[in-house]
Design goal:
- Strand 1 and strand 2 (146-156) form a beta hairpin.
- This protein folds into 2 domains: 1-45 and 133-161 and 333-367, no CATH class; 46-130 and 162-332 and 368-505, Outer membrane efflux proteins (OEP) (Up-down Bundle), CATH 1.20.1600.
- Helix 7 runs antiparallel to helix 8, helix 7 (163-229) packs antiparallel against helix 10 and helix 10 (305-326) runs antiparallel to helix 11.
- A 4-stranded antiparallel beta sheet has the order 1-2-3-4.
- The protein contains 13 helices and 4 strands.
- The protein is 66% helix and 10% strand.
- The longest helix has 67 residues, at 163-229.
- The chain is an alpha+beta fold and 507 residues long.
- It comes from Camelimonas fluminis.
Length: 507
């Protein structure tokens, strides 16, 4: 009988065939079945399943407690309707800073996308915790006088051996993704609160310029009539007209800023259509008594969510380095079980047909031997990556301390500036303008000094509004310098962090 040679099913850099032993099919089944069943049962008991909330419990506890706001992932029509009802209820009243933050947390679609990325990270964690899928194959080779049927199953032994370590790393990656999502929540709350104060300050400036412009318009009309009757010379009349025209330009500029700041707040809140016509206050609230802070550096190091993320990332890299050390000498190891059935026919010299049937089973171990690279490059890369993360953690600790001190110093300085305007600058400016008006009416001074004093009072009032705006922004910065969420930065950092977490969970 003619036998055809078969090429190996698996190929690698160097293949070591461990135990290519023909046996009877019954004997091989007796050897393989109990081991496969018990091994599969053992592996499946350690699998990780999906959580009921997509990992949101940790996000809610890590963020909503710090900002005292409701954090909800919209996953169905019921949750979407509840969120819309809450947003509508808040928008029916004049919007406060706390209400604006709550609307953003319920309605900002970028935040909901961050929650979706967390769900992707959970799916990647579950996938990484599952045993590798075996590969099944069957082939048939037939000729005129023979038939050969081959069945095989291939499994990755290295992936099975490292499954517990890889599953633990995947769980750590998912926990980091949860912390990064909590950081995104805190950042949206901080950015919304800052933009709210900017929008309200723009409203306050417009309101003040409108009052000043109305008073100037009345004075201009009086000067026009006096000019017609000869009571005011042309130069004083022109100075008053120029002052009124400058106020008109400044009012137009204030309205432009008002529109810009409002639209930026609209984007933070995720509103459009009729919902974008919410009402904002026309003046900033009075400044409260300043907070005192003790051990702000230690508090920031303990509470800041980005510090917690950096610490967990360093611990995760340490585990990854241990796994790299453990498998440095083996890149791939696969176990192949093959069962072959051969049936052939042979014609004898007397013209009769003789049938020949054979069954064989083979167990093969395919290992890649590192002849040129004994894992030094992988270990060196892992060690340098770990040291890079350690140095960045040390740098972040220094920066967090500095940011906490800077935020508190800015907060206290802003408070002192606001109090100086309220207690000294604005009252003195009012006295100066009132006295200047009395002297002008008594013909002791000309209109030039009167207009100069009026301009200076307007500038002082605008500066006082800006100082109060800066105080509330500094208050927000100081609060989030202790809990995390960014100190006046943009949203790219959180987006990049979440994207990196999702990519890392896939490895």
């Amino acid at each position: 009988m003619i036998r055809r040679s078969r090429s190996p099913i698996l190929t690698s850099a160097v293949s070591g065939k461990a135990g290519a032993m023909p046996q009877t099919g019954r004997r091989m089944r007796g050897l393989l079945r109990p081991g496969l069943v018990s091994g599969a049962a053992l592996l499946l008991t350690g699998c990780v399943g999906f959580s009921g909330d997509g990992g949101m419990a940790s996000v809610v506890s890590g963020s909503s407690a710090s900002i005292d706001k409701e954090v909800v992932r919209i996953s169905d029509d019921q949750s979407a309707a509840a969120a819309k009802e809450g947003v509508d209820r808040l928008l029916r009243q004049q919007l406060t800073a706390d209400a604006a933050v709550q609307v953003a947390l319920l309605n900002n679609r970028g935040l909901q996308a961050a929650f979706n990325r967390l769900g992707v990270a959970e799916a990647q964690m579950v996938s990484a915790s599952l045993p590798p899928n075996p590969r099944f194959g069957i082939s048939k080779l037939s000729g005129r006088f023979e038939v050969e049927i081959e069945r095989q199953i291939v499994g990755n032994l290295l992936a099975l051996a490292t499954l517990p370590a890889r599953a633990e790393i995947a769980r750590d990656q998912f926990r980091i993704a949860q912390q990064q999502t909590a950081e995104a929540v805190l950042k949206l709350a901080a950015d919304t609160r800052r933009q709210y104060w900017r929008a309200v300050a723009a409203n306050a400036q417009v309101a003040f310029y409108q009052q000043a412009s109305a008073a100037s318009t009345a004075t201009t009309e009086l000067f026009r009539r006096l000019g017609e009757s000869g009571g005011v010379n042309k130069i004083d009349q022109a100075r008053e007209f120029a002052f009124d025209a400058e106020l008109t330009v400044q009012l137009a500029e204030a309205r432009r800023r008002q529109g810009e700041e409002r639209e930026r707040l609209v984007r933070q809140l995720g509103l459009w259509g009729a919902d974008a016509r919410f009402r904002l206050p026309s003046a900033l609230p009075p400044t409260p008594r300043p907070q005192t802070a003790k051990a702000i550096e230690a508090e920031a190091l303990r509470q800041r969510v980005d510090m917690q993320i950096a610490r967990n990332e360093l611990a995760l890299l340490a585990r990854s380095l241990g796994l790299t050390q453990a498998v440095r000498f083996i890149n791939d190891a696969e176990l192949l079980g093959r069962r072959t059935y051969d049936r052939g026919r042979e014609i004898t010299g007397v013209g009769s047909v003789q049938r020949d049937t054979a069954r064989s089973s083979t167990l093969e171990l395919d290992i890649e031997i590192p002849i040129y690279d004994f894992g030094q490059s992988k270990v060196a890369m892992a060690e340098q990556t770990y040291m890079q993360a350690a140095n960045r953690l040390a740098e972040k600790a220094v920066n967090v301390r500095s940011e906490a001190r800077e935020a508190y110093a800015s907060y206290r300085a802003s408070y002192d500036i606001v109090r100086q305007y309220q207690n000294n600058v604005l009252p003195l400016r009012k006295i100066i303008q009132d006295e200047s008006l009395l002297q002008y009416n008594g013909m002791l001074t000309d209109v030039t000094e009167l207009l100069t004093d009026a301009r200076n009072r307007i500038l002082s009032n605008v500066a006082a509004i800006n100082a109060r705006r800066d105080f509330w922004i500094a208050h927000t910065n100081f609060r989030h310098a202790l809990i995390g969420g960014g100190v006046g930065g943009d949203g790219a950092v959180a987006e990049t962090a979440l994207a990196n977490a999702g990519a890392a969970a896939g490895h």
